[in-house]
Design brief:
Layout: H1 6-24, H2 29-44, E1 46-55, E2 58-66, H3 67-78, E3 90-92, H4 98-105, E4 109-111, H5 128-133, E5 140-146, E6 152-161, H6 175-216, H7 222-240, H8 244-254, H9 266-269, H10 277-283, H11 286-294, H12 300-311, H13 332-346, H14 358-367, H15 375-383, H16 385-394, H17 398-405
Antiparallel strand pairs: 1-2, 1-6, 2-3, 4-5, 5-6
Helix pairs in contact: 1-2, 1-6, 2-6, 7-8, 7-13, 7-15, 7-16, 8-12, 11-12, 12-13, 13-14
Amino acid sequence: MMNPSVNELSDQLRQLNRIGIALSGERDLKSLLDKILFEARRFTRAEAGTLYIRRKDQLFFEVVQNDLVTRLDAAADRQGKTRRIPARSSIPLAKNSLAGYVGVTKEVVNIPDAYAIPADKDYSFNDSFDRASGYRTRSMLLVPMLDGQDSLVGVLQLINARDDGGAEVVPFDARFEELVHSLASQAAVAITNADLMALLKASYLDTITRLAIAAEYRDIDTANHIHRMSRYSAEIAREYGWMADRVEMIQHAAIMHDVGKIGISDSILLKPGKLTDEEYAEMKKHTLIGARILGGSDSEILQLSELIALTHHERWDGKGYPRGLAAESIPIEGRMVALADVFDALTSKRCYKPAYPTERAIEIIRESSGSHFDPALVVALEASLPRILSIKAAYRDREEDEIQAS
């Protein structure tokens, strides 16, 4: 095998540097894992690959990429056929499997032919995927993904080496072993950082939810209301055509929409009858109180929460509060949360009214389209109704459970 030229090595190092920079900037774990495997395959010209992530004493199949199987599946779909390939979930972190062996020993394994592994090896090849899919695994390169403390994060498995023209090469070029090992180390650090960021994000969002519940706390169903209406807002946004990251943002920000009610007395909030003009004027202040509580934060979520707290009682016809904004002068997020909040209020029991059936709630909302609500968002609400009703069922109030049990 010819040694690589100085120019080839320089190009490979530049590729590794480019990949490392790309990985360090990715914070979404799923996207990161897809990118790691894609880049490793492109770097080595592998036809397929698998990325395993370690969780305790198991290796989980997190990402599987296979160009040939993808093409076969697409062809079957065009013919109206379904190829049934069993899903794979995890394997033990043990020496008897290829990935398990690499995970335990932290060694690189480069195999010319998976079906010709010597009998004296600790590991063997599991051909169940090949048999189910019609695929033929031959060359394999498996590399441990180790973090800065030499702890195993996962295993990177590359399958069926190809040359620049797509012809089969056996085995993977040995010079790729060290380079892919370096890439795997970069990837392990990026995965660890993404995991930490995800954990911090989950803790942060959990804190926001708990603070929102505490701020509104009047009975045990407050949490269900918050979970429902924030998810309703997300479904309306999704149906309206928003991208996933923006949908997620409004779901988390909507949680704090009524945080200003912490400044409103129980005698007003829990009054079973109609509020007096003075009491209603006091109630309306919760939008301003909420905006003041949430104002001044550097957090993108809390900035959006402030906007929603301030504007979720504005109306399309300009008759809302606190500023009397109308139509598109009301921020779209405020319009979405207003609709989600009212739908939940209509379909939930309150101290001053029973819960309306879904059909009646939709009728009321349709009647208010163009006056209270943005007509386009009403359309989005109705289109997303099956998903919204699933959310409603998942976060039922106590009274609904008691009725179903009786």
